[in-house]
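step: validate -> pass
step: tokenize input -> pass
step: predict -> running
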Amino acid sequence: MKEPDLQGQPTRRELRAGLGAATLHRGAPPRPAADGTRDRDPAAASMVESVRRAVLAGNVQATGAALADAVGSSGRLLGSEGTLSALDQVRAELKGLGPLEYLLAQESTTDILVNGPSDVWVDGAAGLQRVGPVFADDAEVRALAVRLVAAGGRRLDDGSPAVDVRLDGLRIHAVLPPISTAGTLLSIRIRRPLQFSLPELVDRRTVAPMMALALTLMMRRRLNFLISGATGTGKTTLLSTLLGLAGERERVVLVEDAAELDPAHPHTVGLQSRHGNLEGAGVLDLTELVRQALRMRPDRLVVGECRGAEVRELLAAMNTGHDGGGGTIHANSADAVPARLAALAALAGLSPEALALQAASALDVLVHVVRDVVGRRVESIGLLELGPGGGLLVRPVLVDAGGECRRASGWDDFALRVGWTGDGP
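step: predict -> pass
step: emit ->
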């Protein structure tokens, strides 16, 4: 059954207003489970499912008053707050993450990982943690995965058992068995566009004060840079912050696989890649988008994440007068970045030698971020250069060894490039 367009679905405020027009049964609101999971009361779940099906069938309109009346008419004693809770569940089942919605409501949540109906993990401020049982069975997990993928315009079934989609600030990856050996898998990355100034990152101990000054000068001198780090280390957050330091009269063009960057800058435009349709047509990848961005008169060209052949186009642009550009790249250490770049360049047909020459000419600075027991922080700033053997290497400039920022071998050259006049660390 095709799901209706629920873009105009009521907000919680509208649902609360709708309660005044509905017939409500007074009673105590349902208590959350001790482990923080949803209410597993079969009667409540049956009522929510009944209302959901009525909306999908067109028998109930997706308005606050209509939904409140449908829930109130179910005969279940809920009370006002209980009815609001039930309405939230209906909305989550229709448009949101269903039983995972309560995890999305937690501001610190960055990832939700479903390994099975009773094996759900959440990553946030406290790190990766397991939560209590959320789904009744694998069929419920699969139904949610199929609905989310369909909402993103793609298909999840036995013929297409592994799919990526983007939905309203979410990146969703779903895998069906037998490709998955543990039932239906869901990996949900939550985009929370938060804008931090560089002083705020210093206050949070993400960036050491001397590194903050070095990065500010790097942006003023329009050096080309990459931010490297493992997954979840804060690469995108730092990139957004640095782009906020660009001159107000500079035009910043962003190229991303999924729109995540949100710089505090008055002249920013973005391009986002597009998957093919069910027939595989209509693909717009990052390589093509970089080419399109070059026709948009960028003062700064930024690729949110270099993960494929687009690295060739980005380096070519930086080598032809497009200064001040940047991007991010996955790497577990700063020293691993040259090999990572070589691997990506190979996808574009570039030899390691050609990549080294292009990268050393195009890129100036590498900023590496980590996530450890202390939190997310900039671990090092370095220069990308050709080594004695002709290979690409990273020469450290500043290193944060866990609270102590010290100069390294590349300091003098970096200071000369950015016009450093302070005493330094």
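step: describe -> The CA atoms of residues 276 and 283 lie 4 Å apart.
step: cleanup -> pass
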